[in-house]
Amino acid sequence: MRRPYLILFFLVFVAAGCATASGSSGDEPRRDRNLITREEIEALPTLTGYQIVQRLRPAWLRSRGPVGGGSGYARVFQDGMEMGDLGSLRNITSESIQRLRFIPATDATTRFGTGYTGGIIEIITRG
Predict the structure, then answer these.
(1) Which domains are seen in the chain, by residue range?
(2) Element (H, E) at 103
(3) How far apart are the C-alpha atoms of 69 and 105, rounded to whole Å?
(4) Contact 60, 73 (CB under 8 A)
(5) CA distances for 34 relative to 9, 30, 53, 103, 104, angstroms
(6) pLDDT (tens digit, 9 = 90+) per residue, 13-52?
(7) Where are the alpha helices (DSSP H) in the chain?
(8) 121 contacts 76 by C-beta, under 8 angstroms
(9) In 9, 40, 56, 59, which residue has its Cα 20 to 30 A from 87's Cα atom?
């Protein structure tokens, strides 16, 4: 008679251990930490590209440390062309940005060559 209760307890215990805990309701899409979408930009007041990154993904603005002679800060590209250092983000307003993407150093090296030890912040403008 005790055996069915033990089996039931064991099954409940195993099922509870297999359940996944999630901090969200499951209805919200996961946010890509390397992407700022147009929807995220529109939720903010009119800002410069630098202010957008500063508010939504501040880690993109941090130095990765001086590696291989580079400063360790990300470089800025706009529509596939290199614009310069992080200060370049101050020259573009939110109205003209479709999305922003952070490209880590290893991927930046593969796509654009060496010298991007801090990665790349890529601006895709609205067309």
Answers:
(1) 33-125 (2.170.130.10)
(2) strand 97-103
(3) 14
(4) no
(5) 44, 12, 11, 7, 9
(6) 555 555 544 444 556 567 899 999 999 999 999 999 999 9
(7) 2-18, 38-42, 49-56, 105-112
(8) yes
(9) 40
For residue 18, give Cα distances in angstroms to 12, 26, 29, 85, 115.
10, 17, 23, 47, 46
Please provide the size of the chain in residues: 127
3-state helix, strand, coil in the chain (%, to 5): 40, 20, 40
The SS3 call for residue 60 is: helix
Span 60-107, pLDDT tens digits: 999 987 766 667 899 999 999 999 999 999 999 999 999 999 999 999
pTM of the shown model: 0.74
Question: What is d(CA 121, CA 101) in angstroms, rounded to the nearest whole number?
Answer: 6
Cα separation of 99 and 42, whole Å? 11
